[in-house]
Amino acid sequence: VAQIMSSVLTILLACIGTWGQNCQLNCTFGFFGFGCRQKCECSTEQFCDRKHGCIGINTIESKFHDFNQYK
User: Fold this and answer.
1) pLDDT digits (tens, 9 = 90+) for 40-54
2) Which residues are registered as beta bridge partners of 24?
3) Are 35 and 19 spatial neighbours (Cβ–Cβ below 8 Å)?
């Protein structure tokens, strides 16, 4: 049974977009969410985000643009 919770300072946190001991493993491509249990069924204009599922490609570009401005 895969571990889907992480213990940090005795607080249990759900593994969202990850799985395994201490949530150290990323979801396999095409899966997302709590313990990587949900499967993406994205359109050609979407990408499977390991935390949120299918999101628009334009959304991804916006996130990277926003992130890069803080470097």
Assistant:
1) 999 999 999 999 999
2) none
3) yes
Q: Which residues, at least 6 apart from 27, have a Cβ–Cβ distance to it below 8 Å? A: 17, 18, 19, 33, 36, 50
- Residues 12 and 17: their CA atoms lie apart, in Å, by 16
Residue range 8-32, pLDDT digits in tens:
555 667 899 999 888 999 999 999 9
Residues facing residue 50 across a β-bridge: none
Using a 10 angstrom Cβ sphere, with 0-12 exposed, 13-18 middle and 19 or more buried, the burial of residue 11 is exposed
Beta bridge partners of 56: 46
50: CB partners within 8 A, 6+ apart: 17, 18, 26, 27, 31, 32, 36
Query: Hey, how many other C-beta atoms are within 10 angstroms of the C-beta on 23?
Result: 20
